[in-house]
Amino acid sequence: MKKLGVIFVVLLLGVVGLWVAALVFLPDAPGGTRDGPIARLRLAVRGQPQPVDIGAGRGGSLVLAVPVAGVRRGDIRESWGDPRQNGEREHHGTDVMAAANTPVIAAAPGIVEKLWNSAAGGTTVYIRSPSRTWTHYYAHLAGYASGLHEGQPVTTGQLLGYVGDTGNAGAGNYHLHFGLTRTDPAQHWYEGTDVDPFPYLAGKPLPG
Predict the structure, then answer these.
(1) Using CB atoms within 10 A of its CB, is residue 25 exposed (0-12), middle (13-18) or buried (19+)?
(2) Residue 180: pLDDT band by 50, 70, 90 thresholds?
(3) SS3 per residue for 133-200
(4) Residues near 41 by Cβ (< 8 Å), separated by ≥ 6?
């Protein structure tokens, strides 16, 4: 009797083992669910690829904020390629019209790479994106926000300065000149390829 009991237990364990193996390795029954623990075990055993969230990585995109306080996207006009200096050059940027001393804010996060004063741009700020693949250019400012300095991290919407008419904007022609430059991470703040900012100020996502 004792031997019969042992044989019975061994047979029972064998049947259970075969049943488990069938659940793990056989194809799913029609109409069955793949959400249970056995289905997840099958995926692990068979080495099936798992879902990966690719929306928030370095290659993701973002929508720029309008860089002048109180200005709506619909109020911004395309000015890329407009003639300047009696047609001697083309305009590379988007002019956002606003009253003098209207706050200018960061369109996206980044690092203040350069504070610069030039004959063309007047009082300017160059902000590099965290990936160093974009430079955002803010020109013709009346002045900087208190304490703004090179190397400072900024967040979207942070105060950078105020709308002015410095540089070659023309006396009383108050506006922000906003520029976008596509850069290689190793390039300097004054290098890169200019890109029309208007579609991105209008709401198109900016690539990473």
Answers:
(1) exposed
(2) very high
(3) CEEEEEEEEEEECCCCCCCCEECCCCEEEEEECCCCCCCCCCEEEEEEEECCCCCCCCCCEEECCHHH
(4) 24
Residue linked to tokens 């009797």: 1
Q: What is the pTM of this model?
A: 0.69
Please tell me the total number of residues recorded for the chain in this structure. Answer: 208
Structure tokens of 163? 């709308």
State whether residue 99 is helix, strand or coil: coil
Contact in structure between 149 and 109 (CB atoms under 8 Å): no
Residue 197, Cβ density class (10 Å: 0-12 exposed, 13-18 middle, ≥19 buried): buried
Q: Using one digit for the tens of pLDDT, what is the confidence trace for 63-114? A: 999 999 999 999 998 877 666 656 666 767 899 999 999 999 999 999 999 9
Selection from 150, 152, 175, 31 nearest residue 99 by Cα: 175
Sequence-ordered list of residues with C-beta below 8 angstroms from that of 204, at least 6 positions apart, any chain = 63
